[in-house]
Amino acid sequence: MTRTRTGYPSIVCSALSPPHVAPTIALAQEQATDARAIKTEQQMTDDERFSLLISVMGTTGSITTVRDPRIPEGLPMSAGYTPGVLRLGVPALRMTDASLGVTNPGYRPEDKGATAMPASVVVGSSFNPQLAREGGAVIGREARIRGFNVVLAGGINLAREVRNGRNFEYYSEDPYLSAVLGAEAVNGIQGEGVISTLKHYTLNCNETNRHWLDAIIDPAAHRESDLLAFQIAIEHSQAGAIMSGYNKINGHYAGGNHHLLNEVLKGAWGYKGWVMSDWGATPEWDFALKGLDQESGAQLDVMMWRTEPFTEPLRKAHAEGELPKERLSDMVRRILRSVYAVGIDKWGPAPEVDMARHSEVALETARQGIVVLKNDGVLPLAADKPLKIAVIGGYAQLGVLSGTGSSAVLPVGGYAAVIQIGGTGIMGGGRNLYLFPSSPLAELKKLLPTMHIEFDPGQTPAEAVLLAKRSDLVLAFGIRSEGEGFDLADLSLPWGQDAVIDVVASVNPNTIVVLETGNPVSMPWRSKVKAIVQAWYPGQAGGQAIAEVLTGKVNPSGRLPITFPADLAQTPRPELPGLGTPWGTPIIIRYDEGAEVGYRWFAKKGEKPLYAFGHGLSYTSFDYHDLEVGGGETITASFTVTNTGKREGADVPQLYLTEVPGEKRMRLLGFERVELRPGQSRRVTVTADPRLLARFDAGADHQWRISTGTYRVALGKSANDFVLTGAAPLTPRLFGR
Ligand code: GLC
After folding, report:
1. Residue 175 located in a structural domain
2. How would DSSP label each residue in 116-173?
3. Are 552 and 647 found together in one domain?
4. CB under 6 Å to ligand 1: residues?
5. What does pTM read for this prediction?
6. pLDDT tens readout for residues 183-196
C-alpha cells in the first residue's frame, strides 16, 4: 500500500488486497505482538485486568443522563470508554460509531460535524474495494483527530431480508462482495492507526425485537453464507475486534455463543482479536466463558438485564474459581494484542485531516454507487434543450436522506432538516428523517441553467399532477426513512408517494423516478415511467451526485448489491415473523433458505426478480469476449471487456458459478470494476475463493469439500444476464476449517 502526499492510502487492488506484508515478516510481527500482549498482561493486577473488560457510554442526555465516574471529566466522549492501564502504557479505549462516518448523536455539543459518507449499501453498489478502503481512511482519520482509537464500523451482515431496517448499513446480500468491501473498509480505517470492528456476528439480519430474536439456520449453510462473509473479511483485514450481535443463533445469544465464538471464530479460524458485545447485549456474566471478551455499553445492560455491570459477577466468579485465571488472562491479552497490532499505544500527533479531500471521497462514492435501473432513452438529460422540468417530492429542495440509528452522522454544518418520526423501543427516540444539505433541486439548477425547473413537494397526487401536466419532463423523488431498530412492513414507499408517482406518470410519460431508500421498493408505477434511478442514502454530496448522473456529467456504474423482488411472495419469508409484535416479544426466524440468500434463492426457485443482483445501466455499452476457464484446485477465469459505446464508463463484469456436479448452484465467484474509454479493452482474470465452490461438511470433517466433476460458470452483467459461459473440472478435496 503506497501513500499519497497527504499520507492517505492510494492502492490499486483488485477484488481483495493481499495481506500487506510478506508472510514471514507477518509471522514474526504476529509472534512479537503476541509476546508483548502476554508480557503486559502478566504485569497487571486483577483490578487492572477487570477494568479492560467493560466499556461505558458517554452522556447523551437521553439514553444516558449521568456521566459514568470512570470517564475522566472533560474527555470528549461517544459510544464507549474503557479505562487504560497507564502505568503499563495501555491507553484507554475510546470508541465511536463510524460505519458511515464519525457519529455524534449528542455526546459532544462542541463537535460541529464529520464527513457524512454514503451508506454502506452505496459502497456495495460501487463494487469497488479501493473506494471502500478510501472511505475507511476518511473515517479512520476523522476518528483519530478526535482521539477515538476504536471505531464500531465494519457492518457486514448479509441483506437476507429486504425489510431489514439496517440493510443500508451493510454492503450486500452476497458473502463474498460483503467480505471484500468490509475488509477494505477496515483496512482503510486500521491503516490510520485506529482499531476497527467487524459486526454484528452473526445473523443480525432483522431489527424487530432483535434482543429476543432467535435466528435458526442449518450450521453448514451458515458457514457458506453469513459466517463466510466474516471469515473472508477477517482473513483480509485482521480487524482488531468483532462485535457480536443482539440476537440468538440456534438458541444461544450471539454474545454467549460457545460454538460460534470459541469453536468457530477463535478455534477453527484462529481469530486473535477480541469479541465485544453489542450495546446492552450481555444479559449473563458467563458469556465470558462462552467467548465474549468485553461487555459494551454497561449502562444499558444494567437498564435492560441486571442490577450491576458484567464485571461484578465476573469478579465473584473469578474469586470462586468459576472463571479460570487463564480465561481472564486470555480476555485481556486479546484486547492488548489488537492495541499493539494496530498501534494505538504508539500514537503521535494526529495526522492532518483534509476535509476537502474527504468530501471528494464522499462525492465519488455516491457517484459510483448510484444505480440506473431503467432508462428508456430519457437519460442523460440533454442540457441543450430549454425544457420545463418538474422536480416533485423527496424534500429534493432541501437535501438527501440518510438512515437512522447508531450510524447516523451529523454532517459538517448540520442537517438541512431533522423530522422526528418516532416509534417504539429503545431506538424510537432517535428515529428521525435526516436530510443532508445537498439539494438535488439546487444541483440540477446549477447543471441545467437553460432549463426551467420548478419544484412541487409532492404532498398530494391532486397537487403534484398540476405541475406535471404543464412540464416537458418530471423528476419524481421517492424516499423512505429506514433504520436501526425497525423493519419495514412492506416494500411500498411511505406517505402516499406511490400514488403521487403513479398519477404524475399517468399525465406525463416523460417521468423519471429517483429513489432514496435503504432497501428495494415495489414500484407499482414501474411500467409508466421512462427511467428509474436508485440513489440509496447517498451521503453529504448526494444531491450533487444525483444531478451529475441525471445530466450525464457522470456516467453511472452502480450495480445492485441486493436483489429487488417483484413482490414479497418471491422471498423466503413473505410474512416476516414477529413484525409488529410488542417490544420484548420473543421471535423465532427460521432462515430455511440457508446459504441460498438473495440471487441464490431466486436462481434456486427459478424466479425472475424485478431487478437482479448485479444489475445496473450505463450511458455507454460493454462487450465481453474470449472467456477462458481453468480448473484444478479452483476456478480461474480470464476474459476481455471492451467499451463498445461512445463515451467513457465503468462496468462490473461478474463471474458466477451456475452448476456443480449434480446440481444447479449460484455463487458470485468474483467481479472487477473496469473503467474504459470508448473502444478500449481490458483483460481481466478472476480466481475464485475455493470455499465458494465447495460445500461445508458440518459432519465429522468440519471442513470444506469440493467434489469431483465439472463446474459450470457464467460471465454476466448481473445474476440474470449471462453473456458467456464456460466450465472446468475441479480436483476433489477436503480443505480449510
Ligand atoms: C447499537 C448497534 C451497534 C452500535 C452500538 C453502539 O445498538 O447495534 O451497531 O455500534 O449500539 O452505538
Report:
1. no
2. -PPPHHHHHHHT-HHHHHHHHHHHHHHHHTTT--EEE--B------TTBTTGGGS--S
3. no
4. 79, 97, 152, 199, 278-279, 406
5. 0.96
6. 999 999 999 999 99
